[in-house]
Design goal:
Helices cover 50% and strands 11% of the residues. It is of the alpha/beta class and 243 residues long. Helix 8 links the parallel strand 4 and strand 5.
């Protein structure tokens, strides 16, 4: 029986990738001032991915990759003023308002009365903690984890630490790579809620999905009805909700 529901944060509970897409356009414009229209943005992505083992995920890693890419592509000609502009861009991203997605708070409010909710997000600890606080959603979660990577090892550690068996657990998120496949490998359930924008690194080849069984919903607003259809809500939790 399902006992615990976990949620991803970025682009599941609030907008995130939109900030990166906007920053990439500004970076592209800066590079085109040096290189003309030959710059297409691919080099920045390649630098980001190669830097993941060094810097991890998040805005700070992205900022360092922008600076590195700019220095490489301009042969060191980029000005100190333009490097400063890239750092200021990163600060803008870190301070951007947290825009909670539609239906999210209503769903969390409903489900938190019936289930212990977990939040599992990856990225820079300082930035993720700041977004969680500013989102106003922390009150709905029994347990919050900010991790450096989302894989079977990470999910397994969290489940063991919380005393949760995989068959009691469902993970909800927008990334097949990070939120769906690892829990499935452990024998848990997973619900995929696609986001309009997804970082290329999070895409998964179709052959890696078969024969993986997971549920895809159009929006988080469909989650309570899906849960109701799949499992009866635990009696103890229902009694606590009505108390």
């Amino acid at each position: 029986m399902l006992e615990f529901i976990a949620f991803d944060a970025d682009d599941t509970l609030w907008h995130n990738e939109t900030h990166f897409c906007a920053a990439q356009e500004r970076f592209k414009a800066l590079m085109q001032a040096y290189l003309g229209d030959t710059y297409d943005g691919n080099h920045l992505y390649e630098t980001e991915v190669s830097n993941l083992p060094h810097y991890g995920y998040g805005v700070k890693s992205f900022a360092l990759s922008m600076v590195e890419t700019a220095i490489q592509l301009t042969g060191g000609r980029i000005s100190a003023q333009d490097i400063h502009a890239l750092l200021e861009l990163a600060k803008e991203m870190l301070g951007a308002p947290v825009e909670v997605l539609p239906e999210v708070e209503a769903v969390l409010d409903e489900l938190s009365g019936d289930y212990p909710l977990l939040l599992i997000t990856k990225g820079d600890l300082f930035d993720q903690e700041s977004k969680i606080l500013r989102s106003g959603l922390a009150q709905y979660f029994r347990h919050i984890e900010v991790v450096s990577e989302k894989n079977t090892h990470t999910y397994g550690k969290i489940l063991r630490r919380c005393g949760i068996r995989p068959e009691q657990f469902v993970m909800v998120g927008n990334s097949l790579r990070s939120d769906i496949l690892p829990p499935l490998e452990l024998g848990a359930q997973a619900v995929h809620i696609p986001s309009p924008q997804l970082w290329a690194y999070e895409h998964v080849q179709l052959e890696n999905l078969r024969p993986k069984a997971y549920t895809q919903l159009r929006s988080i607003g469909e989650l309570p009805e899906w849960l109701e259809a799949q499992w009866y809500r635990p009696q103890a939790h229902s009694e606590r909700r009505s108390a």
